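Troubleshooting log. The previous structure file for this entry was overwritten by mistake, so regenerating from the original sequence record. Sequence copied from the archived sheet and checked twice against the printout by T.R.
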Amino acid sequence: MSGHNKWSKIKNIKGAADAKRGKIFTKVIKELTVAARTGGGNPDGNPRLRTAIQAAKAASMPKDNIERAIKRGTGELQGDMIEEIVYEGYGPGGVALLVETATDNKNRTVSDLRNLFKSGGGHLGESGSVSWMFTQCGQLLFDAEKYPEEKVMEVAIEAGADDVAESHGVVEVRTSPSGVYQMKDKFERVGMHPTMAGLGFVPKSTVKIEKAEAEKLLKLLDTIEDHDDVQKIHANFDIDDKILAELTKP
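Regenerated output below.
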């Protein structure tokens, strides 16, 4: 693989996705609304929405909340217009960051992110400043304890995936951006369920960082991830496994 988005794997190690239920609801509701607006309110014909509904159910979101979010997306209910915006910047150690957001107030979001980057030892950049360092692709992540790499690879090869690799207890499958949800359906038809499926940005190369910078960077990423408007973060850092284990231990 040309690179990897190690932050997604670190979140899996730390269990960060389960930390705050209220924030999970906020992020999932925005994804439901945007998915319904861009692809329609019928999950049978909108694989992105179908995936968002599955994520909502996995978070134990009430059915009424799911339905309201979808109806706001289709225009059946009134609500604030939510925009998807990707912000770019640098963190400690010169690590490039792409931050995907879903916001109803981009002025608030960019101001908040600028302050978070600055206080965390980085800086927010202009559009295009780091995006050239990444390639967009479809990504599926599997828990390696439930689905070993060999088992995932068997299905992935038959389904036409571009690449498969395992690291830090996570098996990553890459495919074309347009084929990610079809790939997800193929896995689920054989009873294999990814912990994440969607579009991602993978780095063309990575930046090696040492412990002091790694500690600052992980703190910054945690802080950014905690923002209500932030949906995903992509980064091009690499941390030695021993350092990573020390920094992510309970």
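The mean pLDDT is 90. Archived copy saved in two places this time.
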